[in-house]
Amino acid sequence: MKLIIVTALLLVVALPEFKRASAQDLQRANEILTKFPVIDGHNDLPYQYRKIVRNQVEKLNIQASYPAIHTDIPRLRKGHVGGQFWAAYTSCNTQYKDSIRAAFQQVDVIHRFVNQYPNTFQFALTAADIESSLKNGKIASLIGLEGGHMIASSLAALRQLYDLGVRYMTVTHNCNTPWARACCDSSPWAYPGKGLNTFGEYVIREMNRLGMMVDISHVHTDTMKDVLKLTKAPVIFSHSSAEATCVHVRNVPDDVLKMLPQTDAVVMINFYNRFVNCSDFCDVNLVADNIDYIKNLIGVDYIGMGADYDGVSYVPTGLEDVSTYPTLFAELVRRGYTEEELGKIAQGNLLRVMKKVEKVKSELAYLPPYEEHLQPPLTDKPCRPNW
């Protein structure tokens, strides 16, 4: 009992007192989000389908409250979520094994649960599709592929996944691929280079040609810089935070943040406690501090929402699930953010990026598909032929 009391006292000391948004601030936030519903860049609900019911969508009813996870339809509605990139994710353990099979399974489960609730979800492929969905009062549903290991170093696989609806790919997850360095990989097969190699550059070029957004969450800072220098289209960080507020390899350092205006990129703020303030204990105010920091450094035009719900184990007090976006926006209202600024953070900045990615696709329509292959010795891995 003494240990519990001491621990509780330490937590009280460790967490500073914050000013709180008022009921009027919350009311104003709800009004703004009714006008500009949130389009979030990253939610791992598809992986929960895999873990809980082995992708048997009929066995998980998200139309009712399901408190064991962060996401269900009632809470999406309460949180004013108007668009969601659902993450097709599979572990790095599948690399050099069956990553493509796992990728197709996760893309498939997204299609199936979106189709299961046609009165709630509307599948979207373009910015115009999202805007149509919003007008219809539905939640635009898009697919992001979380990790370049899932294309097995194959541009053909990348193209087929695009045809199945994938509209961004995270260049790496937490493992290096044979063509790009991740934030935090020290595996025996670790990529020997610094950022992108030659084949990695072709992956980015093909994504630009296809009109697939390049996501540089999870990658090494050298990879971030290589992508930002190479890409012809704006990129995103689908679920990352600022390194200045928490020194972590998953966050974005200032020198990279300062490159974002040059390419019109967007960093979509992650709510995971250990990325927000490097602690298991966090408050909505600290997430707002992260947004403040980036706004003051490069401007509000490069910020979005990428909470990472259902993909993390700790979330801030006040941001417990997808119903709580209004709590964060109420805090931003309290801090003096205008309706225009909040509309940009909620959806406008991401829609701008998507439209520009689609414009670049149109400009590159004269190019044939890239046909490069990864070359030995990088292909000399178990369960893989030489090309």
Automatic annotation (TrEMBL):
Major location category of this protein: membrane
Membrane topology: Lipid-anchor; GPI-anchor
Listed cofactors: Zn(2+)
Family matches, as SUPFAM superfamilies: Metallo-dependent hydrolases
Catalytic activity line of the entry: an L-aminoacyl-L-amino acid + H2O = 2 an L-alpha-amino acid
Annotated GO MF terms: dipeptidase activity; metal ion binding; metallodipeptidase activity
Origin organism lineage: Eukaryota, Metazoa, Placozoa, Uniplacotomia, Trichoplacea
EC numbers on record: 3.4.13.19
Signal peptide: 1-23
Protein name in UniProt: Dipeptidase
A GO CC annotation given for this chain: side of membrane
Pfam families in the cross-refs: Peptidase_M19 (PF01244)
Family from the record: Belongs to the metallo-dependent hydrolases superfamily. Peptidase M19 family.
Quaternary structure annotation from Swiss-Prot or TrEMBL: Homodimer; disulfide-linked.
Subcellular location: Membrane
